[in-house]
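User: Show me an example of a complex going from sequences to structure tokens.

Assistant: Sure. Here are the input components:
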Amino acid sequence: MSHFLTYIWMAPLIAALIVLFLDDHKAIKKVSLAGASVSLVLTFFLAFKLFDPAHSAVLQLRESIPLIPQLNVNYTVGVDGISLVMLLLTAIIIFTGVLASWAVENRAKEFFFLLLLLVAGVFGVFMSFDLFVFFVFYEIAVLPMYLLIGIWGTGPKEYSAMKLTLMLMGGSAFVLVGMLALYYQNGGQSFDIYEMARGHLNLSPGFQKIWFPVLYVGFGVLAAMWPFHTWSPDGHASAPTAVSMLHAGVLMKLGAYGCLRVAMFLLPEGAQFWAHTLAALCLVNVVYGSIGAAAQTDLKYVTAYSSVSHMGIVLLGLSTLNPVGINGAVLQMFAHGIMTGLFFALIGMTYGRTHTRIMTEMGGLAKVMPYLAVCFVIGGMASLGLPGLSGFVAELLVFLGAYRGDFFMKMVALISITSIVFTAVYVLRVVQRTFYGPLKNAHFAELKDASFVEKVPLAILIATMLVVGLYPYPILHVIDQAVVPIAQQLGGMKP
Amino acid sequence: MNIGLLSTEMMTLGLALLVFLCDLFMKDGRSRRPLGTLSALGYLGILLWTFKAPFAGASGSVLTAFGGMFLEDGLAHTFRQIFLGAAFLTALGSSDYLEKTRMRWQGEYYVLLAMATTGMMFMASAGDFLSLYIALETTTITFYVLTAMHKGTSLVSSEAGLKYLLLGAFSSAILLYGISLFYGMAGTTSLSGLGNWLNAQPAGDPSPLLVLATILVLAGFAFKVTLVPFHMWAPDVYQGAPTPVTGLLSVGSKAAGFAAIIRIFLFALNHGPLVSLWSFLLAALAALTFLVANLIALKQHNIKRLLAYSSISQAGYLILGLLANSALGRTALVFYLILYVFTNLAAFIVVTIVSARAGSEEIDDFKGLAQTSPMLALVMLLSLLSLAGIPPLAGFFGKFYLFAAGIQAHWILLVTWAVVNSIVSLFYYLVVIKKMYLEAPVAGAPRPGSQPLSLKVALTVCTFFVLFLGIFPAPVLGWLDNLLK
């Protein structure tokens, strides 16, 4: 069992390599689904059988193999509460993503190969506890996006793909430099995250004040932190369905996870110094993102801006520096991931039928596709934080955590809460324009509702949202214990 | 004096003579492919021999021959293997190319290839300014001729050869002047003698004469390794030369230049006050190189010129390893040169194949390659991504190691600048990838068919090492650490 975690990221990679040798599309899709299922099963087994929730603050199932002794790099993987939740999210999204991509026919082999490679990278990031290995997996998770969006995307796909790749690589360039600076400032002894965290007092406040923004911004680009979010709307809108699901659902969380695990955990004094600035930037994210979403006419752009806004809530939760806020941030990562996965899957299915994403061209689709319409409404309610669904718990915690801070943070919290109104505006607008009202285009009367292969992923995602929304205790318990040591490291802001 | 120390060089020279004799006895008009195969097998044989034969300097000692003019140490040993590997891959990539372009002097080409390799090996083993200069001239003059090898059929080739000759001669003269000044001050041309003389100097600012000599020698070698603003010859020469020669120039000649720079700057001129002088100069040159090379590359539409500018920018990264002035820096530098052989030659061999089919060397020729020739496109993808520094490929780890060396030596701003520019470079590599994968092939264009065995072997070897060195660099790093103590 000591290599269990490695199997989780190896499964999609092996499936990807097998896919390279297959030519029949049905076989390719079945193998991909098998790979995703294996990861899903392993992750669930890990979460419910192997992981000890009573000790989720401790790194479990740890495995460490020397990789590059010259640089003190070890292949160190493990799970704690936060990683576990992220791994679950990834497993669910890739499984539903493969199902949502069942209709891909153009160059299916390369598509599924790149998708599985991407997912292997993402799994790897969430379980790595050695900075070098973390970074390698992080980059592996970014580059396949260029080909995935550029080949199978829609709209200005080459432009979106290039912009996305260059900006994300730019962010990781800063992470690279920051990582090396941290390594050598800590004496060049180890790239292990926990060892570096223990040594944070050796890092002078001056060093931390300079390098914290470097690392945080580097990761923040991927987390769509304003003003580095501009790759996000075009990137999400141009990407094919499964890629958008993965990207908005999981990859953006990679950035926030990096902010938490690397930037804040290893440079706590720097985090304390920059907390107010970060909170102000998050405020812009939240409010600007939701206003921007309200102004869009293309369904995918609405969801993309909504992602920017919700990632703002995640980063806001991180910038509170207290356990409540950070708990909310991690839960929001999970909740938003599921919700956005649901949205992009739905939009993909709708687009596949109506061949348009402009809301004004659609209308009354609920009469024709009731299953999809209902799922859309539920997803929308989760997005605006309706109690009973997972989004509510997460946002509540983030705002409570922010309100616990000083006057500045209280103001930030209050202004961010106004974004809920704008969220309601764009969610209800989308639902009303697309699904309700009279049927605008008579041709749409012949459209079919969701097929079985499409109903399964939607049902899984909605079930997850309901379970977490109605009974959040198990997941929060696991997250909370893991967050406490990080919050202690940060010193927390006094209530 | 142990002439056995020169056995590798003598064997390579012997190979050159053997190819020459075989060419002499082959009828005119017969295919010279066997010569290519003979050369390739010869290089491979000598390379394997260097791994197996007891290496004289293995215990870390330095053995000399010819009164200190020839050194046998870990550095020389490693570089010899780099040159032989590069020559092996070049020979494999040449035979098909020479036939397709109907070159008139194919036998002579292979002989010159071997001569150039021998020259480069002598450069890496030079312990004295004189032997270094002679080796440098041997290599460079051979490359002048190789560059202009398409003399009858291509004006660009002749122009490139002439440009290289003129600029090369000019910079050689500058180099020689610097060497003569060093001789005047130190009383000896031996590198170790120079080092001893410098260490015996009183502390304090270096004398103006010393500064002048250092700058002149630096300028002379900056030409060789294509640092901006001494890089002007590179784009034209790389574009005009026969593509396999370009490949060897970009990896072998650069490696030889760096071997010489390591010997001069890290071993001889590693004297306190002088270090800050040449460090500052090299850092400035490297910073300029990143910027200029990457910016100009963005505008290129000829693939060989693009790769030329890419090659120029790589020199900047290598300088980082030098500036670190530490064991880590040296290992990083040599490790990068090793992986660079495989990465760059893979790219150049694919360029050879594609441009032979399309009849031109434009980037547009790569349109839709992923659909017409998926394997070739994959090899090109891997080598371009490796050049850009994307994990888990070799180029990423090479760059990472160089950056680590740079940051350990506190060159933080320079490393940040290097990293930022490497993102800029990603753009022009992605442009080629975009053409291959995202665009449709031009209807009716000739498709690269199945390739001869020699090219398949070369590409397989290169791709294997690009992946292997990126995922498991530790064994090679350990081996290098041992040799470069």
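The lines above are the inputs; the final block is the predicted structure for all two components together. Residues 46 and 239 of chain A are 31 Å apart (CA to CA).
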